[in-house]
Amino acid sequence: MPLVKGLRDRVDKFSAKTPADQTGTRYGAVKDIAVGRFTEWASGPVEFRELVRNVLEKEGVPAGQQGMYYAFAFKCRKALFSHSGPTLKAVINGLINDFTTGKGADPAILKKIATMILGEVIS
CA dihedral in degrees (55, 58, 62, 65; nearest 10)? Predict the structure, then answer.
């Protein structure tokens, strides 16, 4: 299984890319704030990806086929920020149809991911 970078890896890389002696003393004074903001920003997508990964591992989806399911999940997440109610359900059902017919994804797994995102069963 390939190495998966978690939030800690991303924060460590961000911290290593911004040493105070190279970026200046003003940045050095606020580096703790910057790292905290980066951690806040990066934690949402990382936690979301881990939830989707758990569903895919339970379903036994091979690593080479997980990309389309992550793409589906992040498109659903994007729709969640701008839609609600019946409109959101229609958008997600459209995405399920698109990924099932166009990309050959398993509709049962897509529905499990959509249920996890919405908190209710998609029919």
Answer: -20
Domain at 7-118: CATH code: 1.20.58
**Domains in the chain: boundaries:** 7-118
pLDDT tens digits for range 78-106: 998 898 888 989 999 999 999 999 889 99
Strand (E) or helix (H) holding 8: helix 7-17
This prediction's pTM? 0.70
What Rg, from alpha-carbon coordinates, does the chain have? 18
**What is the spatial distance between Cα 99 and Cα 82, in angstroms, rounded to a whole number?**
20
| 122 contacts 90 by C-beta, under 8 angstroms | no
